[in-house]
Amino acid sequence: MIRLATSHAAITAPFVASAAGFPGIPIGRSLLDGRAFHLSPVLADMRILPSTNSIGLGGLGSGKSTTAKVRIRREILEQQHQAVVVDSFGEDNATGEWAPLVRDLGGLVIEAGAFTLNPCSDLFSAPVREQLVRSLILASEPDALTTQATHALQHALNHPKATNLNGLTDALVNPQDGRWPAARLAEWGESAAMALSRYTEGSLRGIFDGEDSALPPTDLPILSFDFTRMDRNSPAIPSLMAAVACWVEQVWLRQSAAVHRHLVLEEAWQILLSPATTELIQRLLKNSRKAALEMNVVMHTLSDLGQGRAQDLARLCEIAHVGRLGRDEAALTGALLGLPQWAIDAIPDLGPGQAVWKVGPAYVDIIQTVIDDQEARLTDTGTRRRAAQQAHADREAAALDDEHDDREQAADLLDAETLDGEIVEAELVDDTSTQPAPEPAAADDWGWEMPPNVIDTRHDDVLQAAREGRFSEAAQLAAIGEREDITAHGILSAEAMSWMSTRAEVAELSGNRGKAIWLRATVDRMGMGRERSEDVDNPDGTQAQHSAPEPPASAVTEVTEEPRPRRRRVWPYVAGIAALGITLAGISQASQDQEQQEERTAKAAAYQGRSKAALDIDGVKADVVAHWSSDKQRVVLELRSYFDPNARFLRIDSGGESASSTLDNGKWPRDPEITLPVDDPLADVTVRIAVGGRKWKEGSRAVSLAVRLSPTGLAYDATTGKRLPSG
């Protein structure tokens, strides 16, 4: 926690400590001058705070979500505000993290997938129906709504069959004559029909293609749309968000009677990156003051949005609270938000619940959010982490108990052996035992020279890294330590040899038992040799132990044969060469591990969870698409032809699974789709697709291609390695 004295604050943060406060709910306390911090943006002077929109940033555990939840709760309880929350993340993937707070306030949690919304329902007015359908089309295919396609859609919405998405799609494909001929309207509406088919026949069916729908209530204090159980990379989330934003704009804001409303976007990067929802959200942000609406955006970093969108969002939000971030991210965020340098420097060292607040153009402070016990219970998202910590503590306690029991057993055995020894010693005692014992050494005289107080923790550091699963780092640290000790003490030294034992333990922990056995066997062999090299042969072939100096020789000398020259030992050199080879092999392996780790780190940084290759096979334009699930346990592979009139046959194969479709009674083949389990979420997926064009006939061979899809968004020809276009 950062606590600065008032005098220090006056130097590092001039004019902040004396800045005027704001009206509204209590949030926390300033760490610069200790004063209480209040803020309800709608109550602030419009000259100081023209907009009420806010953005909360911070890394995991920084407290950004807790601050957002506490603000909304207090605004509802103290100011009678209303709120709608779009909750995209839950701790256990079972329920959203806002659910306890929403239910405690008497609100409603609507789980995505548990309800069906019909955008063509007569519960909506005609303009709202059109806006909803346009949003769904843009969420599915951003480029589908040309000027001609928009006119065809408007014409189809007036068709008697357009009471649901299936009927609307049929009206687009087979329109009635209007101001323009039916043939031309069908041509214009083809792209819109293909986009809507995702909701009626494709992977998004079952969400918007029902007959009836019931609109959410508009008079509750808080309502949460819970997207937690959905795949976070699924296009269904932008589609649902488009529908929610349209409902907020066209229904909730018009019917709500609250004096002020809040729209909270939790994990907002996922929503703001979608072209379908960006326009809607920006419109709500720009019109928020007129609509008595406050947008509260919560996300990790602004860089998730890219430079352009991040600048737009930062410009539209007059209020920002920034929790702990890395130094590079803090510098980028500070530049976008216009923070002073002292505030940017403070961000990386902030504790949980602490944040740099910027309110309006001039006010900057460091605030500690203050919550009570009930709020702590309602906003807690660390239950799983604490459960893991408790389990670890239980294991440690059990291990200590076992160690204590072992020590007690050993002590009992030692007492028994000591007692037996005393009895035997009493039987063998003679008169010489009556001689006085030597005087004990003085209390401060140890009788030997104490070693220097130096503790080598390098081996422990290596093993600790291995126990935490960081095997590549452990191998690298072991290689560095081994090189240092070989240089300092020699290749056959005990210090150098001890690293082989450590590497054996690392191999054991990583599951490479064969390597561990081999390393330990090498240590045993070389250790025995090292012990022999410390012994010196006597002339008679026996070995003299160097435990104590020999007494001086008598004056009478004895003529003895000249000792035979000792045979030169070869094994130390062989052992040295073997150890050097093992060391070099370990260094090479550590280097390879490091390169692989760097490659995986780069791949993880570029991870998108989606990949697409745009292909033209046998005269058919098709896309092969891969979607990785949010939990990274499965991947959905799909071959899309978008109703290409030349398509006769489609097939996709991967991982022993396959799916295919053919032209049936003049209907275009459906897009085949398969789902595969994922062992390594960063590994590429190779699929083989086969496409039959206009000349394809049943029983004939279709043109096929192997495609490698990367979770970073790239796609390659699996045979040639050539990168494929993504459309």
Could you explain how this protein is built, in words?
With 727 residues, this protein is an alpha/beta fold. It has an eleven-stranded mixed sheet. It has a five-stranded antiparallel sheet with strand order 18-17-20-21-22, with no helix packed on it. The model is unreliable at 1-19, 417-454 and 528-562 (pLDDT under 50). Helix content is 41%, strand content 16%. The protein contains 21 helices and 22 strands. α4 packs antiparallel against α9 (236-255) and α19 runs antiparallel to α20.
> Any idea what the shape is?
flat
Strand arrangement, major sheet: 2-1-11-10-9-3-8-7-4-6-5
How would you sum up the major sheet? 11 strands, mixed
Stretches where pLDDT is under 50 for at least 5 consecutive residues are 1-19, 417-454, 528-562
